[in-house]
Amino acid sequence: MPRSVRRCSFRNGGRESSCDLPAAPRRTTCVLHTPGDPKPLPRNVRRLLEERARAGRSLAGAVLREASLSGADLRQADLRGAALSGADLSNADLRGARLAGADLEGATLRDASAEGADLRDATLDRAVLARAALEGASLRGASLEEADLTEACLDGADLRGACLDGAELTGASLETSDLRKASLVGARLHRAKLTRAAIEDESLEDADLGEDGDLEQDEED
Questions:
Q1: What is the pLDDT of residue 203?
Q2: What is the pTM of this model?
Q3: For 17-50, what is each residue's pLDDT tens digit?
Q4: Mind giving me the DSSP string for 143-185?
Q5: Element (H, E) at 204
Q6: Separation of alpha carbons 146 and 46, rounded Å
Q7: Half-sphere exposure (CA, 13 Å, Cβ side) for 79?
Q8: Distance in angstroms (rounded) separating the CA atoms of residues 214 and 58
Q9: Where along the chain do its domains lie?
Q10: Rounded to the nearest 5°, which phi and psi values hold at 4?
Q11: What gap in Å lies between CA 214 and CA 195, rounded to an integer?
Q12: Coil, helix or strand for 52?
């Protein structure tokens, strides 16, 4: 009789649903959920991720530290709680992706498309998001300390309670964004556009606004 295939034992938050990928040799988890800091990833990891994203299969909790995913098509991907620190996601398509609670510390998302992405409570400290498209993205409670958001587009983004201390936002567009309760200590907002953004005056007290910032905004309700 053929031997049954052992399935990955990973469970997302203790839920009944588990990963449907086969366990790696001599492991109880699959190649995506095997811990490592970083670990060697299979050559086809990008294709595997793209195929699962297209099929609507979960990638939650995947361990992808320092993965090379430049230009990857991960639209609508479920990457909740994924470990992506140091990963290269430059030019990646992350529109509508679910990245709540993901660790993207030091990751590169330069020129990435992440409109409407869910990045609530994600860690993006020291991440590079220069020229990234984040219109309508949810970054509520996210940590973006010392992140590079130069010329990024965050129009309509939800940044309530986010930490942007020391972030580089020169030339960024934050029109109609929600920055209530956000921390901007030491953040550089030179030439940033904050037209009709919801933000308290005290949040800007310790920010570096330069001389050309467009600070036209709606009054707090």
A1: 85
A2: 0.90
A3: 568 889 888 888 898 998 877 677 888 899 999 9
A4: B-TT-B-TT-B-TT-B-TT-B-TT-B-TT-B-TT-B-TT-B-T
A5: helix 201-204
A6: 28
A7: 30
A8: 41
A9: 59-221
A10: -70, 145
A11: 7
A12: helix
